[in-house]
TrEMBL record:
Entry's family note: Belongs to the CSN1 family.
Start and end residues of each stretch annotated as Disordered: 72-103
Compartment(s) of residence: Cytoplasm; Nucleus
Domain of life: Eukaryota
Nucleus found in the keyword field: yes
Full protein name: PCI domain-containing protein
Keyword Nucleus: yes
UniProt organism field: Tritrichomonas foetus
Sorted UniProt keywords: Cytoplasm, Nucleus, Signalosome
Location of the PCI domain: 296-338
């Protein structure tokens, strides 16, 4: 196998059928000179097309393969019944419920459509099955994956979260750019990697999940937090992850200048994934912002020139990032745009000043009450003596 074939296999091995189809199309759409990898992807897709009898998928494969379109969509509802019927009759028509004379219940119909990768139709069928069948099954897993494959990431997040499909919710959150929510799911997915359960019918391989977890660390965690998570990950995997380990070491050791210089290479890895490619620019921005937050955190003040030397970012970019961090409450400080200086600990200082003021007020009140009590006590004793 070529190097690219091995890389692709690490991303698509043991994925569920719908996600595997989406991934094969994604890699097929990328310009690459490796003809062996290209033929492997076409062979994979042809096997899926024959297995599902989905003629629409065949058209999508042809369009993506010939570079006729950059849009990768499949499984959408046919525009007309006649189009739908003609497509089904091209190959394995007997497998589609629309052409069969036998009536099936809503659940069977939905599952058949899902397995045949008529995703839009199956989503509607699952919605109907929920109403028709008096059962508790809400088909969250199937509906979540359908929305994920169709690029409806926020719907996928909502459905996956309801049934605690933390891996699906995690990757959907990354694709949607909801990185704060993705960070909340790091611990759950980290435990899944540590348990070393075999990948089967998943939406992301262990190889990819390792990358995604550390990408979120780069975007949202401190260097110490990242070190703890990285140790857990690398102690439980045998994958060769040379570049990822290099980037992780740079981040942990706070070698942020060198880290930022390699962001272009990191973006190339983002483009490999169907989950990081939709939000790659947002992810890069979040990583830069997190690096700035990590860099300014220990300092009482830091000039933009110093930050420029430490990180290699322009003064305008530094100012923009700091404004966002302050607005989000991720750093306690303010910006002096006249002198181009970040002044840290402003909120902490104001908090301490407020605490001191409250303590002094309480002390004054206590002293006042004590003096008042003394006066009353003395008056009572004086009246008793007279």
């Amino acid at each position: 196998m070529t190097e690219r074939q091995r890389l692709i296999t690490k991303y698509i091995s043991k994925l569920s059928k719908a996600t595997a189809t989406r991934y094969n199309l994604h890699f097929l759409s990328q310009p690459n000179n490796d003809e062996s990898a290209r033929h492997m992807l076409l062979d994979n897709l042809e096997i899926i097309r024959k297995d599902t009898g989905n003629a629409e998928l065949g058209n999508v494969i042809d369009d993506v393969s010939s570079r006729k379109t950059k849009s990768i969509t499949f499984g959408h509802q046919s525009k007309t019944k006649s189009q739908s019927k003609s497509k089904f009759s091209e190959s394995h028509a007997d497998r589609d419920p629309f052409t069969q004379g036998v009536k099936k219940n809503s659940e069977q119909r939905a599952i058949t459509l899902f397995n045949s990768l008529f995703l839009e139709d199956s989503l509607n069928a699952f919605e109907k099955a929920k109403k028709d069948l008096d059962i508790r099954n809400k088909y969250y897993e199937q509906r979540a994956e359908i929305n994920l494959v169709l690029g409806r990431y926020r719907e996928a997040i909502a459905l996956a979260s309801k049934c605690r499909l933390y891996d699906m919710a995690f990757v959907a959150a990354i694709a949607a750019g909801e990185l704060d929510y993705a960070q909340m799911l790091v611990a759950c997915n980290l435990r899944a990697i540590e348990s070393q359960k075999p990948d089967k019918d998943v939406v992301a391989t262990t190889f990819e999940m390792i990358h995604l977890l550390l990408f979120i660390c780069f975007a949202k965690s401190t260097s110490k937090e990242t070190e703890a998570i990285a140790r857990q990950i690398f102690n439980n995997t045998n994958y060769e992850l040379t570049f990822l380990k290099e980037m992780t070491e740079l981040f942990i050791n706070r070698q942020f200048y060198e880290f930022i210089q390699k962001l272009g290479e990191l973006k190339d890895i983002f483009d490999l994934s169907i989950y990081t490619s939709p939000s790659s620019l947002h992810l890069i921005s979040a990583i830069k912002a997190n690096i700035v937050a990590n860099e300014v955190e220990p300092y009482a003040s830091l000039s933009f020139d110093e930050l420029n030397n430490k990180l290699g970012l322009s003064n305008d970019e530094i100012a923009s990032i700091l404004r966002t961090l302050i607005r989000e409450g991720r750093v306690n400080g303010k910006i002096d745009l006249i002198n181009n200086v970040y002044i840290g600990g402003v909120a902490d200082l104001q908090g301490r000043q407020m605490d001191d003021l409250i303590n002094r007020t309480v002390l004054v009140r206590q002293n006042f009450q004590l003096n008042l009590w003394k006066q009353e006590y003395n008056q009572i004793n004086t009246s008793k003596k007279t």
